[in-house]
Amino acid sequence: MAPPRAPPRGCAFPESAMLDSDDFDFLERKFEQKYEVTEPKVLGEGTYGKVYKAVSKQNSQVVAIKRIKLNPDDDEGIPSTALREVAVLKELDSEYVVKLFEVFCSPHKLVLVFELMENDLKKYMKSVRGQLTPRDVKSLCLQLVKGLEVCHARRIIHRDIKPQNLLIDSQLRLKLADFGLARAFVVPVPKYTHEVVTVWYRAPEILLGSSIYSIGVDMWAVGCVFGEMATGQPLFPGDSEIDTIFKIFQKLGTPNEEDWPGLSGLPNFKKNFPSWRHKGWDNIRTTRAQVGRNGIDLLDKFMAYDPIKRWTARRGLSHPYFQEP
Question: Which residues are registered as beta bridge partners of 168?
Fold first, then answer.
C-alpha cells in the first residue's frame, strides 16, 4: 500500500482520511452525508470557487456552499484567500456578517458551508433598475457601516467592499461577505499590497500607489457604494487605475497639499495632473433627492481625500443622517 500523502498546506483533517488514494475524498463523503446540493445551477463564482445551494439533511436548513478545487500536487495547497476567509469568519460573529457554518477539507476539495442569502446588492439594484427608495438607501448603508464597525473593532480590514460582496435577503437585511482579501491590521500600520479592492471602489491613496493604508480604504468604498445606491450607477467606473483616479478628480475636484498633506509624495501622483473643480453633489444625478442634505454631508465625510480626515464607521454611526426618521 502506498504511504499516505500529506494534506494540502494549512488543511487539517482526521487521520482516518489519511489512508490511501481511495480515501482522498473522505471528507467530501462526510459532506454528502450532511448536505444535499439541491440546485446544480451556480449561484455565484469567484476566483477560486463556485457557490451552490444545498440543504441540510439534519434540519432541512437551506445553505450556500462554496466548492474550491485543490491541486494536491501544488505546493501552495489551499489558496491564501480561502484560508484568510475562513480565519476571519471564524473570528467574526455578527448579524451584519455572513455566517460560516462548517468547513470540509480533503486533498481534492475545500467546501465552505454558509448561511444562504438570496441576493447581492448589485443584482438587487439591477432588479429594481437602480431605483432604490430613500428609505432603503439609508437602511442598507446603515447596515453596511455597522458591519464594518464590527470588523474594524476587531482590527480587520475587509479591503474588497463592493455591491457584489454585500449579500441581502428578501427583507433587505445586509451582510458582508467574501473576506478573501481581508486581513488584520496593527499599529503602526505596515506596508500592504496596493492590488486590493475592485478598481471602481478603490481609495485614492491606493490608486496613487500608497502601500501604507488602514481602515479608511473600507470607508472610501462605503462612500462609493452609498453614492451608487443614491444615483443608480457606479460613481467612478474607470477602466484602469489612472482612468478611475481621473473620474474621481472630475467629480470631487483635483486635490492639493492643503486638502491632503503628503499628496505630492505618493508614487503615482503627478504635478501635471489636470485640475478639476468639485462638481457638486447637486449635479451628480439624483443624489440630494435620495439622501438629503445630511446624506450629502455623510458622503463628503466618507470620501475625504485625506485618509486621516475620512470618517470611521464608528463615527459615521452617530451622523445625523442615520438619526433621521
Answer: 119, 174
Residue 162 assigned as binding residue: no
- Work out the angle at residue 112's Cα, subtended by the Cα atoms of residues 218 and 55, and round it to the nearest 5 degrees: 120
CA dist., res. 155 & res. 314, Å (int) = 13
Alpha helices in the chain (DSSP H): 26-34, 80-91, 121-127, 134-153, 204-207, 216-231, 241-252, 287-302, 313-316, 320-323
User: pLDDT at position 78, please?
Assistant: 73
Catalytic residues: 160
**Eight-state DSSP code of residue 190:** -
Q: Evaluate if pTM is beyond 0.90.
A: no
Q: Per-residue pLDDT tens for 207-255?
A: 999 888 899 999 999 999 999 999 999 999 999 999 999 999 999 999 9
- pLDDT at residue 10 tops 60: no
Rounded Cα distance, 167 and 116, in Å: 9
Beta-bridged to residue 176, according to DSSP, are: 97, 166
Q: How far apart are CA 265 and CA 182, in angstroms?
A: 27
How many other C-beta atoms can be found within 10 angstroms of the C-beta atom of residue 309? 12
Say which residue, 109 or 51, is predicted with more confidence.
51
Quick one: angle between helices 134-153 and 287-302, nearest 10? 20
Number of other residues whose CB lies within 10 A of the CB of residue 285: 16
Q: Quote the pLDDT of residue 80.
A: 76
- Total count of residues recorded for the chain: 325
